Amino acid sequence: MRREIRILTAGHEDTRDTRDAPGGAGAELRADCTRCFGLCCVAPAFAASADFAIDKDAGQACPNLRQDFRCGIHPELRQQGFSGCTVFDCFGAGQRVAQVTFGGRDWRQAPGTAKQMFDVFTVMRQLHELLWYLTEALNLPPARPIHGDLRTLLDRTEALTRYDPDAVLRVDVAAHRRDVDALLSRTSELVRTQVRGRRTDRRGADLVGAKLRGADLRGANLRGAYLIGADLSGADLGLADLIGADLRGADLRGADLGDSIFLTQFQVNAARGDDNTRLPAALTRPPHWTTVGPPSGRALLPVSQRHRGARPRRR
Q1: DSSP string across the chain
Q2: Does the predicted model carry a pTM greater than 0.70?
Q3: Which of 83, 118, 182, 300 is the most exposed place for a label (fewest CB within 10 A)?
């Protein structure tokens, strides 16, 4: 499917074909910190915890944010106690707000726009997340019967991102999300029915710390499931619906998520994995993941060999 996107960069509009991007997700849905004003370092609040070394109020700039809007400790965020920063993903909302909604004027140059800009960023991130899901859904062949409805809703969502700041803040994101979720749920059903036999339904389930090593979760419904710290090493999550699943600290070493659906970079960044973890083409392997395989006793084929018909034996 060909779908063009329009990107505004330094006053010049560029048209690109999303077929050039993995999974059909174009540059507008990928964070580009060089075109942002450090919005994720200012807009949200965070508390001193295992994820953040300090307390910070919403709208207060992180002390590590430099004047050029770059992070002063970016190469060693985890070592300095800011692992939460390495997990966050704005889905490209940062550069949209900075370069399009506010026309390239940053909140330091125009301090009167600061609060509104931060509030708009919070809304825009949610809209861009929905764009990510809708774009993925449109690239799933089993969802072809509802591609027309998905495309209509994608266009509506894109239109919302083009509103001026005041209009963006008036968007009823919750209501719009319900409309999107209904279609994504239908998409999920169409995709997961490709898996024969009984499919696991653990939507919203409490699976914190669950022992699911090597589990066959192919075609499972794990929407909104709590998988914090769960052992999913070597598990088969092919065609599993992972939208909203909490994967913080989950062990994905050697797991197969290559054709799972609605998995985001945010979720992947929050989990633990290694070189044997298979991810969808649209996502990248986080730099903090290890190169060491899963615990001894678990034999796995190389990722390149773990496709249908060449799966590791289950113990």
Answers
A1: ---EEEEEETTEEEEEEGGGSGGG--GGGS--GGGS-SGGGTSS-B-SSSS-SS-B-TTPPPTTB-TTS-BTTGGGTTTTT-HHHHH---TTHHHIIIIIITTT--TTTSGGGHHHHHHHHHHHHHHHHHHHHHHHHHT-GGGGGGHHHHHHHHHHHHHHHTS-HHHHHT--HHHHHHHHHHHHHHHHHHHHTTS-S---B-TT-B-TT-B-TT-B-TT-B-TT-B-TT-B-TT-B-TT-B-TT-B-TT-B-TT-B-TT-BS--HHHHHHSB--TT-B--TTS---TTS-SS-SPTT-----GGG-STT-PPPP-
A2: yes
A3: 182
